Structures are given as C-alpha cells and as structure tokens.
C-alpha cells in the first residue's frame, strides 16, 4: 500500500501558482514546495507540470532543479518526473557510475509489470537516444551481461498459473548446476530470466524444501564476484520485494554515512506502491519505526520531504 497522503480536491492551476510564488524572490520556500508536491500523486503532479508550463511558459522540473539543491533537489527532481521517465533516469545514472549499481536494473526488471518495463525502455530511448539494453550491454560483459540484458529484454508472463511438475524439474536443474559450481550455466540464466514470478517462486520453494536452504545461500559458496552477487540480488528482489527493499533501506541508513541515493530511490519509487508494507517489515526486522530511523539519519528539508512521502509529516 502507498504511504503518501494526497489532497483529492487539489487544483493544478492553484498548485502551479503556489509553486511559482515559492520560487519567486530571494530564497526558495522549500516548506511550501514540500507541502504541495509531497501530497500529490503521479497524475496530479503531471497536471501541475502541465498547468505550470501553460501559465508561465517554463518547465517546473527545471525550475525546481534550479531553485533547490543537494539531496532535497535530487529527491524532488525524481519525484516530479513521470514514473517511467524517472526509472529511465535512475537506470542511466546507475550505469554511468564509476562503481555501477546493478540493483537499479534488477529492481526495474523484477518489480515492474511487462507493460511498465516497456514504458521505461521507451522513455529511456526517448531521453538518451539509445536503448536500455544497448547501454547495459556496453557497460557489462560476459555472464553479467547475459543476465542483466536478459532481465530487461523479456516480456515476462504475468499470469498466476503454476506448473508444479515443471517447478520440480527445474529445481533439480538448478541444484545440479550449483552442485557442479556451474553458476553461469545457461539453464540458470534461462529459468531466472524467463519464467513467470509465480512459477519461479514455486521452483525456488521446491529447491528449499529439497535442499534445506534457499538457493541464494548456496550461491554464497562461490568466491565473491559481481555476477554471483547480482544473481543472488535478482532472486531476492523477485521472490520477496518487500524484504528486499527493507534491506536496501536498512543498509542505506545503518552503515557509517547515510547512502542518500539508495534511501531516496526506494522511498520515491515505492511511496505510491508498497512503502507501507516495507515500513512494517522494517519495524518487524529492527524494532524501530522507519520514520524515526530516517529522522535520526537525515536533516533539514530533505528529512521533511522523505517523512512527508512516508505519510509522517513532522
């Protein structure tokens, strides 16, 4: 469930006018910006951008990019974009990092519907004049390339049907490949990148029942390498996204120095989807409410914005 608290009777023109005032004169009224945008859903935010363009002849996203700074600017910028365009930006930024963050590609391919993923790839082409697959391929190699390109290329079946006989058979295929330490086996890539999520979950559940632990535990037996870690992350994200995102947030705020990029990414992308469940999982895992943990590790208007998206305005 979503966490943002929206205003149902908001008027785009009025919001656009208030945002213009917030950006006018000396200094920006960040509180006003947050009070409006953090309480509007994606459709409302799009209408505000359109109204602002019509009324003032300028792009609201660019205006706020100029008016704000630091972590707040990056968070508001990503929140303001259409979801597909935002995901395209996140993917491109992740691929251009010196230490590339493959988690972003995994999150898109494992949590979006086939139609949503198609929209992201279309937005990526429109914005960067290249395909997402092309850029992934140019920034990776060998088995890692096969895995990541495979994940974003497939139109994964969305039905709930499960073939238990097939799950049993493919569980045995996975076990044999892992016993042989053949983590780059073609069958592993085929099963992980093509099967529907319910079918894959059934296969992995059968694997756990037969072997006494999750497949991801056995993948740890391989000497640490980028491909194996990416494969493990893919399985975790696809089979239990709520637990996966809870761990991303936990790691982002518990280590020395908050990882604002990862924290912002999860909150901004999940606030209108399943952030409430992620918050509940965080409390279950850490015995501390997520909003309190974030308030402790962040500050200023950036903190205020994140808490508003959590539905916890301070």
Question: What does it look like?
Answer:
The protein is elongated. It contains 20 helices and no strands. The model has no long low-confidence stretch (mean pLDDT 93). The longest helix has 16 residues, at 164-179. It is an all-alpha fold and 314 residues long.
Query: Any idea what the shape is?
Result: elongated
H-E string: HHHHHHHHHHHHHHHHHHHH
Strand content: under 5%
What's the total count of β strands?
0
What does the secondary structure layout of this molecule look like, with pairings?
Layout: H1 12-22, H2 30-37, H3 42-56, H4 60-67, H5 70-80, H6 83-96, H7 103-111, H8 114-128, H9 132-139, H10 142-153, H11 164-179, H12 186-194, H13 197-211, H14 215-219, H15 226-239, H16 241-254, H17 260-270, H18 275-286, H19 290-297, H20 300-309
Give a quick summary of the entry.
With 314 residues, the chain is mainly alpha-helical. The chain is built from 20 helices and no strands.
Keywords:
20 helices, mainly alpha, 314 residues
């Amino acid at each position: 469930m979503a966490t943002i608290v929206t205003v149902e009777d908001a008027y785009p023109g009025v919001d656009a006018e208030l945002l213009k005032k917030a950006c006018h004169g000396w200094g920006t009224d960040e509180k006003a910006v947050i009070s409006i945008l953090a309480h509007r859903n994606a459709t409302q935010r799009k209408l505000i951008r359109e109204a602002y363009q019509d009324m003032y002849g300028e792009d609201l996203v660019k205006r706020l990019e100029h008016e704000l700074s630091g972590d707040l600017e990056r968070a508001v910028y990503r929140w303001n974009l259409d979801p597909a365009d935002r995901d395209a930006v996140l993917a491109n930024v992740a691929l251009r990092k010196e230490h590339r963050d493959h988690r972003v590609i995994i999150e898109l391919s494992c949590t979006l519907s086939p139609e949503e993923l198609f929209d992201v790839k279309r937005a990526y082409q429109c914005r960067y004049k290249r395909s997402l697959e092309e850029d992934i391929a140019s920034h990776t190699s060998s088995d890692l390339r096969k895995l990541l390109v495979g994940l974003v290329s497939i139109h994964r079946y969305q039905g709930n049907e499960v073939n238990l006989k097939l799950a049993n058979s493919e569980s045995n295929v996975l076990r044999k490949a892992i016993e042989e330490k053949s983590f780059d086996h073609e069958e592993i890539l085929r099963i992980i990148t093509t099967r529907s999520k319910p079918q894959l979950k059934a296969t992995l559940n059968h694997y756990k029942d037969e072997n006494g632990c999750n497949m991801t535990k056995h993948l740890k037996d391989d000497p640490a390498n980028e491909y194996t870690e990416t494969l493990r992350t893919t399985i975790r994200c696809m089979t239990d996204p709520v637990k996966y995102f809870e761990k991303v947030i936990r790691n982002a705020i518990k280590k020395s120095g908050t990882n604002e990029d990862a924290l912002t990414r999860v909150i901004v992308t999940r606030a209108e989807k399943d952030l409430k469940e992620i918050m509940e999982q965080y409390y279950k895992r850490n015995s501390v409410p997520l909003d309190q943990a974030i308030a402790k590790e962040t500050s200023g208007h950036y903190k205020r914005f994140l808490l508003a998206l959590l539905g916890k305005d301070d």
